[in-house]
């Protein structure tokens, strides 16, 4: 009974974190699934957004202005990676690593050369806060995160239906054909990376408010969580969700499932130092599921003709 009561008490926090990280996972989905680019910038951007948001609020700016500037900072980080890749010919994965490396120093500069900066929810008007997670109120972080998620998915659904958004999707699907059709592939890659990292930075700003502080290591391993959410959502809902908006919903659900599973494992007594190992194993298993399913399907497909050939003729 202690296990279930502890889990029940911890679930609201897991749901809130899952939804906030689900927004981050939407950004990862744009690069990995839409653009088909392995972008590791998010490990840096997941700190940048929170650092910018917290520091601006500490200097007296409104929370909405702080969120906007955090989003713009994410756009700038994505543009840096995009220019490394398109203008300098650096492979996408290495361009992301370089940006991530540069962002570590930039994030420290943003936070006045400190590893972390705290923001007291009692003194600032935060949109989300950990202390409100169990309250039945409009400022409950679960409700706020749901609203943010719904708005972002609606805007992305509209944007990727426009000519520019369709061009970005075409660039990811087949860059050579897109180039032959007169689409500026390099520009679209930069725009896609900017949009992705802008969304990640927005998620980071919300997460820093939720925790009550920004930390220079906040984004360490973020790409693993983002990939886990994308893969879990794809494995569980690929056959059901075909609409683009529903695919984004599946990513958010994947993030929530990931955090609920993490919470269950922690409640069972897993050492928190082993979380990264467990996360890697979860991602590995879900990555392997499509391969295992395909392998099983091919084995069945080969077995059926063999059975037909071996069947006696009447």
Describe, in plain words, how this protein is organized in 3D.
With 314 residues, this protein is an all-alpha fold. It contains eleven helices and two strands. The protein has helices at residues 2-34, 42-58, 63-86, 92-110, 141-159, 163-173, 175-180, 185-211, 222-237, 244-267, 275-310, and strands at residues 116-118, 213-215. The chain has a two-stranded antiparallel sheet with strand order 1-2. Helix 1 (2-34) runs parallel beside helix 5, helix 1 (2-34) runs antiparallel to helix 10 (244-267) and helix 2 (42-58) packs parallel to helix 4 (92-110). It is globular, with a radius of gyration of 21 Å. It starts with a helix and ends with a helix. The model has no long low-confidence stretch (mean pLDDT 87).
Summarize the helices and strands and which ones pair or pack.
Layout lengths: L1 H33 L7 H17 L4 H24 L5 H19 L5 E3 L22 H19 L3 H11 L1 H6 L4 H27 L1 E3 L6 H16 L6 H24 L7 H36 L4
Antiparallel strand pairs: 1-2
Helix pairs in contact: 1-5, 1-8, 1-9, 1-10, 2-3, 2-4, 2-8, 3-4, 3-8, 5-10, 6-8, 9-10, 9-11
């Amino acid at each position: 009974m202690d296990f279930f009561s502890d889990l029940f008490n911890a679930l609201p926090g897991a749901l809130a974190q899952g939804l906030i990280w689900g927004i981050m996972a939407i950004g990862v989905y744009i690069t990995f699934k839409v653009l088909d680019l392995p972008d590791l910038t998010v490990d840096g951007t997941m700190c940048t957004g929170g650092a910018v948001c917290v520091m601006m609020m500490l200097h007296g700016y409104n929370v909405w202005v702080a969120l906007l500037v955090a989003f713009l900072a994410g756009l700038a980080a994505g543009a840096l990676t995009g220019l490394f890749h398109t203008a300098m010919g650096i492979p996408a994965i290495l361009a992301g690593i370089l940006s991530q490396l540069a962002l570590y120093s930039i994030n420290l500069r943003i936070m006045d050369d400190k590893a972390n900066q705290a923001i007291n929810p009692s003194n600032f008007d935060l949109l989300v806060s950990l202390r409100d997670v169990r309250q039945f109120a409009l400022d409950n972080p679960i409700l706020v995160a749901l609203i943010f998620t719904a708005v972002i998915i609606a805007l992305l659904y509209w944007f990727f239906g426009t000519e520019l958004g369709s061009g970005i999707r075409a660039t990811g699907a087949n860059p050579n054909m897109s180039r032959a059709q007169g689409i500026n592939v390099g520009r679209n890659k930069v725009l896609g990376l900017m949009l992705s990292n802008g969304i990640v930075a927005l998620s980071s700003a919300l997460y820093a408010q939720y925790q009550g502080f920004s930390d220079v290591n906040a984004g360490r391993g973020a790409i693993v969580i983002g990939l886990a959410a994308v893969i879990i959502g794809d494995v569980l809902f690929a056959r059901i969700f075909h609409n683009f908006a529903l695919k984004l919903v599946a990513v958010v659900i994947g993030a929530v499932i990931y955090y609920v599973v993490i919470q269950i494992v922690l409640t069972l007594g897993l050492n928190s130092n082993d979380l990264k190992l467990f996360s890697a194993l979860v991602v590995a298993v879900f990555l392997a599921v499509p391969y295992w399913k395909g392998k099983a399907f091919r084995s069945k497909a080969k077995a059926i003709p063999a059975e037909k050939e071996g069947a006696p003729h009447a």
